[in-house]
Amino acid sequence: MKIIGIGANFYKRESERDLLSEELLIFTKPASSIAKGSVWHYPSCSLKVFYEMEIVLKINKTLSKVTTEEAYNAFDEIALGIDWTAKDLQAKAKEKGFPWAFAKGFDEATFLSEFLPVSEFEDVRNLNLTFKVNGETREKGNIQQLKANYEQIISYTSQFMTLHWGDLIMTGAPPSPGEIFKGDHCEGFIGDRKLLDFKVV
């Protein structure tokens, strides 16, 4: 099982809608980075961690070099996930021209809610997302603001690597990511439905 993330994939404003590049910013995260539950442990390897909450797709078939039409319904479950980034590790890696795998792949760097069938949602392509920290809304957006939609992400990724059942795709977070601290209480919602509720320790 692999985890694939896509960076900078949310429009901040309508005027940006003509700016979609033919190439997507894709990165991977190890399966060992997955965590769940009511507690998230701040990593000992970093002093500056940022959150990005987004929809996660669970692939339900083998896909290689598929079109966007063939990528339709290639997932039947979704979750809320937080793509944690150790910004200090990322900055050091970028300065040296190194990959930033550790900044995205440390233990618990992929924090997930339970997966739910897409049939539980009226329209899985029209979901409102809200992330709160200590009761304050920090991220808010709708999946229709994605620069590359679900099928475009799946199709693009499959041109380079075969996707298999159980692979996870993190589709991109609404603006704006921010820093997290020990003691913070975090909540994640799809519409009015709370799927994430945890404390940072």
Compact description:
The protein has 201 residues and is mainly beta. Helix content is 14%, strand content 36%. The strands form 3 sheets. Strands 1, 2, 3, 6, 7, 9, 10 and 13 form an 8-stranded mixed sheet that branches. The chain has a 5-stranded mixed sheet with strand order 4-16-15-11-12, with no helix packed on it. Strands 8-5-14 form a 3-stranded antiparallel sheet.
What does this structure look like?
The chain is mostly beta strands. Helix content is about 15%, strand content about 35%. The chain has four helices and 16 strands. It has helices at about 70, 85-95, 100-105, 150-160, and strands at about 5, 25-30, 35, 40, 50, 55-60, 75-85, 85, 110, 115, 130-135, 135-140, 170, 180, 185-190, 195-200. Strands 1, 2, 3, 6, 7, 9, 10 and 13 form an eight-stranded mixed sheet that branches. A five-stranded mixed sheet has the order 4-16-15-11-12, with no helix packed on it. It has a three-stranded antiparallel sheet with strand order 8-5-14. The radius of gyration is 16 Å and the shape is globular. The chain starts with a strand and ends with a strand. About 35% of the residues are buried. The mean pLDDT is about 95.
Provide a count of the helices.
4
Shape: globular
Helix content: 10-25%
Beta strand %: 35-45%
pLDDT < 50 stretches = none
Biggest sheet features: 8 strands, mixed
Structural class based on helices, strands and sheet pairing: mainly beta
According to DSSP, the number of beta strands is 16
Mean pLDDT: 95
Radius of gyration: 16 Å
Order of helices and strands: EEEEEEHEEHHEEEEHEEEE
End-to-end gap: 28 Å
